[in-house]
Fold these 4 entries.
Entry 1:
Amino acid sequence: LSDGKYHKQIRIEENATGFSYEKLFLEYLTEIVSEVWVEDPYIRSLLNDVKLLQLYNFLRFCEMLVKAPCKVKTIHLLTSYDEGGGRTQQLSGLEEIQQSLRNYGVTLNIAFSSSIHDREIRFNNGWMIKIGRGLDYFKKPQGRFSIGYCDFDLRPCHETTVDVFHTKHTKKM
C-alpha cells in the first residue's frame, strides 16, 4: 500500500442500503489521522429540504469523524456559495457546525470557490476517497419518521461510484 498505487472501486447500486459514512470511511481513519480535507461544491442549504439535506450530510460526516478512533483536529471544507437566497442559511449552518465542532476540539476551516467541480475527501494518512455524488449519495427519506431517516445504513442510496486511492503525498488546499 505504501507505494502509492492502491486503488479500490465500490459501486453503490440504485436503492442499495448499508453504505453509511462509517461503512465507507472508518477503515481509512487510522489513529494517525488528524486532518481531513473535504472538497464538495454542493455543501449548501437552499431553503428547500433537498439542499438542506446536504448541510446535514456534512454534519453527519463531521459526527462520524468526531466519533472515529482517530483524533481529528482540523477539517478543511472547500465548497461553493449557494446561489441566490440560500447563502445566508448556508453560512449560518456552516458557522453552527463550526461552533459545535469547537466543543470537541476540532477546527473547521471553510473556504469557497466558484470554479470547484470535483468532489473528494482526503485524510492526512494518504487516503483519498472520490465519490461521484460527493457526500450526497443518500436518497431523501420517505418521511421524518421512516426507517433510514436517522440511520444512514438503512437509507437507500442513489447509484454512484466510490474510488479509494492511497497516495504518498496528498496535495494541500
Entry 2:
Amino acid sequence: LSPGAKMGCFTFIKVMMILFNLVIFLSGGTLLGVGIWVKVDGQSFVSIFGTLSSSVLQVVNVSYVLIVIGSILLVIGFLGCYGAQKESKCLLMMFFSVVLIIFIAEVAVAVVALVYTSLAESLLTAVVTPVLKEKYGVDNTFTHIWNVTMREVHCCGLNNYTDFNKSYWYETYGTYPEPCFAALPPLAHPHLCGCLLQGCFGQILEEIRTNAAVAGGVAAGIAALEIAAMAVSMYLYCRLDEK
C-alpha cells in the first residue's frame, strides 16, 4: 500500500477504536451508576423494576456485581479510547494487557465449568441446600423465587426432593412444596416426586446442554470481539513506531 493508503487505514482503524471503546466506556459508566444506585437505595430500585428485581437481589448482590463490571468496562473503555486518541503506546499496551487478562480468565472459567461440573455441583449443594432448608417458607421472596424456578424448570430442590428433608417447610407442613407435585400424573403418590422430578441443578444443566449452540455462539462472539480489540490495539501500537 502507498503511504497515503496506509495512513488512511490507520486513521480509519483509530476512529473505530475510539468509537468502540467510547461505547464500552459509556456502558461501564451506566452499569456503575446503576450499581451505586442499587447499593444506596435498593428499595427505590425494587419499586421501579418490580418483583423480579427483588428476587434477583435476594439471590445475588447485584450492586457489587454491577459496580465491579461497570468499573472494569470503564477502565477498558478509557484505556482504549484515550489511548487511541492520544496515540499513547503505554495506554494501548495497558488496554491490550487488561483485555488479555480478561480473555484468559474467561477461558479458564469455561474450562473449569466444563471439566469440573461435579465440583461446581458439590459447592452449590454445600452453599445453597442449607439456605433452602432454612429460608424456604420463611422468606416470602426467596420462596417465590424457588416456586417459580421449580414450576418453570419442572424440578424439585437443588439436587432432588430430599433437599427439603428436615427443612423448615417440611417440619412445619409435613410435606414437600406444591411445585414438586405439579408435573406428576394425577394418580401418582405425592412422595414419588423424588423419582419423577429431577433437581433443578441437573435440569438447568440439561437446558444448557440443549442450548449449547446458542451459548457457544454468544461466547464465541464475545471472544472474537476481545481478540479483535487486542489485534487492533497491537496494530495501532506497532504503527506508531512507523509514524
Entry 3:
Amino acid sequence: GPAHLFRLAGKCFSFVESTYKYEFCPFHNVTQHEQTFRWNAYSGILGIWHEWEIDNNTFVGMWMREGDSCETKSRQTKVHLVCGKSNKLAFVSEPSTCVYSLTFETPLVCHPHSLLVYPTLTEALQRRWDEAEQLLYDELITDQGYKKTLKDIFEEAGLLKVTEEKEVEKQNKKISLEFETVEKCSKEYKQLSKEIKKLKDLLSQHGIAYKGNSGE
C-alpha cells in the first residue's frame, strides 16, 4: 500500500464509547475491551490486518478480518481512512452483527493523490494497467473484463488477498503455461526422453525388467 502510511505501523489508537474501549493498531489488529467490573467482561479481537478496500482505483480503507468467532463466522472490521488534523480513531459502529466499521482520521490522507493505487505498483504491473486502459479505450475488452484485470493486478501486488480456489487455479495455470509454444514442448520432450533413457539403462544394469513405449 501507500508507503507514507507505514509510519502508522507499530502505533495504536483508542476510542471509548459507552462501556467499550476500541483499539486500532494499523497493519496489525482491532480490539474491543469492555470497561466494566462484570466477571465475564468481553475483551477480544475484532479483526487482524488482512487486505485493502479499493474503490475507483483508490485505497479507501483497511479490512481487518479473522477476528474472534461470533456465532457461525469471525468478527471483521472495515477501517475507513479520512482526512483529519491529527491521527485519531473518530467513530465506531456495528452496521451488521459482528461486522464493525471504524473511521480513522489522519493528515496522511489529505493530499488528493495520497491514496492512489497506481503509484504504489511496480513498473511491470503499471504497464499491465496501462495496457488494460488501452484495451478498454479501443473497446477490445468490456468494463467487466477491465475490472477483472485490475483485480488480478491488485492481487499480484499483494493489496488484495487471493482466494484459495484462485491460488490453485494459478498453480494449474503455471503448469499449463510451460508448454505454451511448440518449441518449449519439443525442448521438454527431448529432456524427458534423455531422463527416460537414463532410467532404462539403470533398470537394465540392475536386471529389472521394464516394458513400456516412449509415449508412456
Entry 4:
Amino acid sequence: QCSACKWLGRYRTVTRESLSLLEEMGGQYAENTMVPFPGPLYNSIMKAEVEDKVKFLVLTLEHIINLMDDTEHMDLVKWNPKTVEYFLKVLHRQSSELKECEDQYQQSPHKESYKLKIKRHFRTLRKILKKERYSAQAWEKIRRA
C-alpha cells in the first residue's frame, strides 16, 4: 500500500481534527451563514482514483491555507488567534504529507476538471469577503464553508 493510501485511510480522523478546530476558533455556526459549497464535486472525487483524490486534496488545502492565512484582513473577526494559528499548522502538515504522496504520481495527460471548479469555488469565497469588506460576518461565512 502506498503512503497516499495510508494517509487517505486516516483522512476522516485528520479532517475531524480540522473541523473541530474550525468550530473551536469561532464557536457555534450562525444559522444565516450559508454559502455555496461544491458538494457534487466532493462526491465525485470520493469515487475517483487515489491519484486524483490526493491531487484534489493538495489543491484544496492550498486554497484553504491561502484564504485563511490572510491576517491583514482579519481585524474584525473575533476568533481565537492561537486556534487559527494551530489550524493553519495542521493544514500545512496535511498539505506537506500529501505533497510527498503526490510527488509519486506522474503528470496526468488529461486536464483534471476539478482544478477549475475548485478555483472557481475559492474565487467565490474571496468575492464574498471583498463584497462584505472582510467583516466578521463574512469571515463566519468562510469558516462555515
